[in-house]
Specification:
Layout: H1 3-15, H2 21-28, H3 32-45, E1 65-73, H4 81-89, E2 94-99, E3 106-112, H5 115-126, E4 132-139, E5 145-146, E6 149-150
Antiparallel strand pairs: 1-3, 1-4, 2-3, 5-6
Helix pairs in contact: 2-3
Length: 164
């Protein structure tokens, strides 16, 4: 399998991990066994880290709260961003940690059942980590699109119909 088909295969799996090896092979013009071996190799090598469903939690769980937290780190010679990120992502409430360029260093995505629960996490756990200078918390009010998938049905057009 050539590199161009490998990238196409990864994109197809990312868009819909439920596609069968047979369907993927047909779409790429490859042998089924070649596709199966490539996917299994990526799984073993850690390139494919897992498979997940994209869920519109706004329709399922009314008590779910998600926050994006901007974290500024005090630079230290002995502790880099990777070590601070490791300390943060070990908490079960943390869904994602990203190192960014710009006005803050790390972006942390946290989920909880109530605003107070997330606020307590920030004040008691996150802010207490050595080398964290400041945090700014943003609560997500509504999610429109995740991982390229639009969560809105699209048939909720609220415009008034005007007829002659």
């Amino acid at each position: 399998m050539g590199p161009e088909h490998e990238k196409d295969l990864l994109k197809l799996l990312q868009e819909n991990a439920k596609l069968s090896y047979e369907t993927l092979a047909t779409m790429l013009g490859e042998e089924v066994e070649t596709v199966r071996q490539r996917v299994e190799s990526w799984e073993q090598d850690g390139i494919i880290r897992g498979y997940a469903a994209i869920v519109n939690w706004d329709r399922v769980d009314e008590d779910r709260v998600t926050a994006i937290i901007e974290v500024t780190v005090i630079p230290q010679r002995s502790v880099g961003f990777d070590e601070v990120a490791r300390r943060i992502y070990r908490f079960p409430e943390v869904q994602a940690v990203l190192l960014l360029s710009g006005s803050y260093d790390l972006q942390v995505v946290v989920e909880g059942h109530r605003i107070q629960e997330v606020a307590r996490f920030v004040s008691e756990r996150l802010a207490a980590i050595d080398f964290i200078q400041s945090t700014t918390t943003h609560f997500i009010l509504k999610t429109y699109k995740v991982d390229g998938v639009v969560l809105e049905d699209g048939d909720d057009d609220q415009r008034l119909v005007i007829t002659p």
